[in-house]
Specification:
The protein is α+β, with helices and mostly antiparallel strands. It has 3 domains: about 90 residues, Immunoglobulin-like, CATH 2.60.40; about 80 residues, Immunoglobulins (Immunoglobulin-like, Sandwich); about 260 residues, TIM Barrel, CATH 3.20.20. The chain is built from 10 helices and 35 strands. The strands form 9 sheets. Strands 18, 19, 22, 23, 24 and 25 form a 6-stranded antiparallel β-sheet that branches. Strands 26-27-32-33-34-35 form a 6-stranded parallel β-sheet, with helices on one face. Strands 9, 12, 13, 14 and 15 form a 5-stranded antiparallel β-sheet that branches. Strand 14 and strand 15 form a beta hairpin. Helix 1 runs parallel beside helix 3 and helix 5 runs parallel beside helix 6. The longest helix has 19 residues. The termini are far apart.
């Protein structure tokens, strides 16, 4: 059967647009391949919308009542597309602090809700107390106060949470008064022409899409809280397409359902999914140098006085990964995606930081951004590894370093002005300033951060990324230091990947970011025009605490999971991580704890 393209003007599924309380700026290029071709947008009650066709943006202002979920109609010529809009769930939370007569010149607050950057969060002193209005969704938020430049926990708040570094933060608990039950929808059964859904609570309405178009009411039959969906005829010509369903009532929005179809038939068994279904990924991370030595002839550790063995090359290489793929090692583990550390060329000498020498065995110090490091293998090695992975129904995503390069990299040697300033206006070093200067800070003196305010930097680095996917048939990227790179890079990269590869080959590349910060920050990078997901470190911390430490209750894990689902949707492509090169793997934390308990 010949498969029709599902691309159209939107590649795959357009992610829902999460509105802010008041004003939201939508980049239409995140959703449409050719946003300049948009001919009309239907008005929506409760919204004021301004289309700017010069920069292809849509400014949305909430001017009245809007439901929890609704659609906007966007036309390109006569073709209708529907984008899903979600009403903001944020509340105005008034936080009050009593200094009990202590002298405070200025008071700020920093936490997960503002990415631990207090610069725009000053209290007002009113009626003898300090007050600030915070816009927050219901949930738990670690935080600290800053008085006269000094950070401290709120002495009047008994709620504390482990900060992961041997200390504690105050914990802000934001709750809503429960007025009623939000619906939860499930699939009941499927049949040759459609499927039946049901809700456990009374609902106001269902919202149902096939791909990016609302299903005509003639194809839906509702009986109270049950809904029968007839599969659109167009679905029978496409190998993989999706139904998407939401429901809502006066009390809130339901979970979202994502129902995969294969040539119009509902899939009911996960075994029917393939590696091309990005919703079905189980990812295994490996650091190439420390995994398996398949070719000892390319070991060649670097010789340098004072260099510790553990900070030198061990000999792991691409050939070692291929060997394990052929041995079915990963198939036996049950994983279907390999995230491999960077294989890009790193310096041929050791670098010194804080008095300690180290090599680039990890791959995060690029000196030639399109060459494979000889310690890891050759062009042929990487191509063979990817081919063998695909034969075994395994994806390969490459760790991409775009925030910085090594000082020996030719692009920074030829263009020294492509780096952000190493020194701030006050003369202090701009190193490790992760929050207050997160888009310009350097990781070390020998690792210049790239200045993405310059269009030529954006174009060069996105071309490098495109090269790796195109040359080696990779399946996507894990992106290093995501929050330290401006949005313009992510939008340009995804735009190029869509036009050059995704639509051309009908290939769903997967991009996942590494960001430490609150859910709002993580969410700002996740949409159809940027990344597919990010690693959920917020959830990781709570999983680790709940399962590894007796004093941590499970209710915090439950709340964290609910916050993730509310923030990213029930069907998201976030990474639920159990450990990586930055954290002790969860298995070893538990093993260490149980080994200790066995001696008690």
């Amino acid at each position: 059967m010949k498969e029709e393209t599902v691309c159209g003007e939107i590649f795959h599924l357009a992610t829902p647009i999460q509105l802010n309380l008041e004003t939201t700026l939508v980049y239409l290029g995140d959703y449409f391949l050719h946003p300049e071709k948009i001919t009309n947008i239907d008005p929506v009650d409760g919204l004021k919308m301004e289309l700017n066709q010069t920069n292809n943006t849509l400014l949305i202002n909430v001017s009245g009542f809007i439901p929890h979920i609704f659609l906007i109609n966007i036309y390109i010529n006569q073709e209708l597309y529907n984008l899903v809009l979600l009403r903001s769930q944020k509340l105005i939370y008034k936080y009050t602090f009593d200094s009990h007569g202590g002298y405070i010149q200025s008071l700020q607050i920093a936490g997960d809700f503002n990415n631990w950057n207090p610069s725009d969060n000053y209290f007002n002193y009113t009626n003898g107390k300090w007050e600030i209005d915070l816009k927050l969704e219901p949930g738990n938020y670690p935080y600290q106060l800053i008085a006269n430049g000094n950070w401290f926990n709120d002495p009047d708040n008994p709620n504390k949470i482990d900060n992961g570094y041997g200390g504690f933060n105050s914990l802000l608990k934001v709750r809503t008064e429960k007025q009623g039950e939000v619906p939860r929808i499930t699939t009941e059964k499927d049949f040759s022409l459609g499927c039946v859904l049901s809700s456990d609570e009374k609902i106001t309405d269902f919202v149902v899409l096939w791909q990016n178009k609302r299903i005509n009411s003639a194809s839906l039959f509702r009986n109270n809280e049950k809904l029968l969906i007839t599969i659109p005829k167009e679905a029978y010509n496409i190998k993989r397409s999706f139904l998407r369903v939401w429901a809502y009532n006066d009390f809130g929005l339901s979970n979202d359902l994502l129902i995969p179809l294969e040539y119009g038939k509902v899939l009911t068994d996960a075994k029917q999914l393939s590696r091309n279904d990005k919703e079905n990924q189980i990812i295994y991370f490996l650091m190439v140098d420390r995994f398996c030595n398949g070719n000892p002839s390319n070991d060649n550790p670097i010789k340098a006085e004072g260099l510790q063995t553990k900070l030198n090359y061990y000999g792991g290489d691409i050939a070692g990964i291929t060997q394990k793929i052929k041995e079915k090692y990963f198939n036996k583990l049950g994983v279907n995606t390999l995230w491999i550390s960077p294989v890009v060329k790193n310096p041929d000498h050791a670098c010194e930081s804080d008095g300690q020498k180290s090599t680039g065995y990890h791959g995060y110090w690029p000196t030639i951004s399109t060459r494979i490091d000889e310690h890891f293998g050759t062009v042929e090695d990487l191509k063979e590894m990817v081919n063998e992975a695909h034969k075994n129904n395994i994806n390969v995503i490459l760790d991409l370093v775009a925030n910085h390069v090594h000082e020996d990299n030719f692009i920074i040697k030829m263009n020294p002005d492509w780096a952000t300033p190493l020194y701030l206006p006050d003369g202090s070093l701009n190193i490790g300033r992760w929050e207050e200067h997160r888009l310009t800070t350097w990781f070390d003196k020998f690792l210049p951060t790239l200045d993405y305010e310059k269009p030529e930097v954006v174009d060069t680095m996105t071309e490098f990324a495109l090269y790796w996917v195109d040359a080696y048939n990779l399946d996507g990227f894990r992106h290093d230091a995501t929050k330290h790179i401006p949005d313009v890079f992510w939008r340009k990269l995804t735009h190029k990947l869509k036009h050059a590869i995704m639509c051309r080959e009908n290939k769903r590349l997967y991009q996942i970011g590494e960001t430490f910060g609150g859910r709002d920050l993580l969410k700002s990078y996740v949409n159809s025009g940027m990344l597919d997901g990010q690693f959920s470190f917020n959830l990781y911390y709570e999983v680790r605490s709940a399962f590894c430490f007796d004093h941590e209750p499970f209710d915090k894990l439950s709340i964290a999971l609910e916050q993730d689902l509310q923030a990213f949707g029930y069907n998201n492509k976030m990474g639920n991580i159990s450990g990586n090169h930055r954290f002790t793997p969860f298995y070893f934390i538990c093993r260490r704890r149980f080994k200790y308990l066995s001696k008690c």
